[in-house]
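Researcher: Here's a chain I'd like modeled. Treat it as a single chain, no partners, no ligands.
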Amino acid sequence: MAQMTYRDALRQALREEMLRDERVFLMGEDIGAYGGSYAVTKGLLDEFGEKRVRDTPISETAIIGAGVGAAMMGLRPVVEIMTINFMLVALDQVINNAAKMHAMFGGQFNVPMVIRTVGGGRRLAATHSQNLEPLLAHIPGLKVVAPATPYDAKGLLKASIRDEDPVVFIEHSLLFSTKGDVPEDDYVVPIGVSDIKRRGRDVTIVAHSRMTVEALAAAEKLAQQGIEAEVVDLRTLRPLDMGPVLDSVARTNRVVIAGEDWKSFGIGAEVAARIQEEAFDYLDAPVLRVNQAEVPLPYAANLEKLAIPDRDDIVKACLEVLHIQIGSPAAVS
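Model: Modeled as a single isolated chain. Structure tokens:
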């Protein structure tokens, strides 16, 4: 194991896959000489050259469209869209091309491409700080991945590059500098497998991406009150692995779902619906959700902080679902 940042884990995954398979190439705005807006691709141009690390014009439609064509013809493109917000101008290529080609051509073509993009953000205002993963996870034909740790980021990116289907790989701007243990040997983390990040007996917290980090911090705070929270990291949003979630609900009987997307029609709504359908008899309290305020995200730092959920909001929700008043001694058996 080696300690490395989320950013370095992603770069290592890209480098290893490019060395392993000559069909893998990178394409995107400023990913070459500049090294990418978040420095994930820094140094790869020098090692692999312009043929395999391609800077592009500022046209997300062209980037994803070219990626779809390259994938259909047997290459394995990894295209970078600087933020998830910029995918909005290329949704036709994502939804009607990448996601549907395999079905529309009767299985004659696969589209083995990865669309790397970044969600979340700080002080990038209403049109640049959106968390649009529910929009993408809604689409059959796409796989949507949102890792929280360096270990998962590397393993899931390698798995995504090797996958035969188009994968939207969502990173988080506030995770790039976080550190964790990453194996030095080759490994993959399978797509579509949730992970229990912390064991507990009193309440289940379901999260993905940065909210998994906040959920783990909330669990530490709850432990100080004698409350043991179990944290389930979804890791993949489509296909959604509910097995670990349902098993956890059967043990704890209470659930809080945390996400940075908006509450209405979001990832948490889908998870809550499936819990109600498949584990209703285990519930001792309603499922609670913690999400971003349903407003366009403000630019002002103080208003933005109020809008985005954090560990304290998760703690508050867990105490509510346990029927414990804030400030009172914990009374969990």
